[in-house]
Design goal:
single chain, alpha+beta, 2 helices, globular
Length: 134
């Protein structure tokens, strides 16, 4: 079964958002050493139920444009085969937002929009993925 394994909060000001969620919920943050600006969120200890997430820069205006990754909270679902999910989303009336991307030492990630306009991510884990050459 495919489970939600990660969520993302999109923000215009990452420092301000980090302070807010740290103060309100006591979450801790650390910068991800990857190819894009991203902060990992720890929402609790590993021995309690729940998931951890990330904080990323907003892309566009969430209140106006539903065609990109502008949304506020975004859940990521771990999948066995991203190719299968890309086809299933299209066949079910959803659409992919942008190209899949390589997350070094993590796997392959793609974002989608369901027929209701809700954004979500799908992650195919693969710790052998390397950063694309620029």
């Amino acid at each position: 079964m495919n489970r939600v394994v990660h969520f993302e909060i999109k923000a215009d000001n990452l420092d301000r958002a980090e302070r807010f969620y740290a103060n309100v919920f006591g979450w801790s943050f650390r910068r991800w050493n990857g190819p894009t600006e991203f902060r990992l969120i720890t929402t609790g200890s590993d021995d309690t139920a729940g998931i951890n997430g990330g904080l990323a820069p907003r892309q566009g205006d969430a209140s106006v444009d539903h065609t990109n990754e502008a949304g506020a909270f975004l859940c990521t679902i771990e999948v066995d085969d991203l190719d299968v999910v890309e086809k299933a989303v299209a066949n079910a009336g959803g659409r992919q937002v942008g190209e899949r991307r390589a997350l070094p030492s993590v796997g392959w990630m793609a974002y989608f929009v369901d027929p209701e306009g809700n954004h979500f991510g799908a992650l195919q884990p693969d710790d052998t993925v390397v950063a694309p050459r620029m």
